[in-house]
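Whether sequence alone determines local backbone shape is best considered at the level of individual chains. The sequence in question and its structure tokens are set out directly beneath this paragraph.

***
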Amino acid sequence: MSRTCGNKRCKCASGQKHVSLYLNARIGDQRKMVYVPKEMEESVKVMVDNAHKVDDLLEEMSQALIDQVVQAKIRRSAARANRL
């Protein structure tokens, strides 16, 4: 996020705005934004990368579960057809 500090002598007053890092998340139906201080930027970036990896793994697990249910339904239908 880019912003100006309000100091008329600062470089941001002429267009070079200050850049700040914010952590942005949706919790329920609300968006939350938290300022991340410079000294925490690297650790927060690692945390966000880890959260993205968890999301990817959950998506893979969900797809695997769907695949298992579909296969079970196919086997069940085949077993019923064989009984007839």
About this structure: The beta strands are 2-3, 18-19, 21-27, 30-36. The longest strand covers residues 21-27. The mean pLDDT is 91.
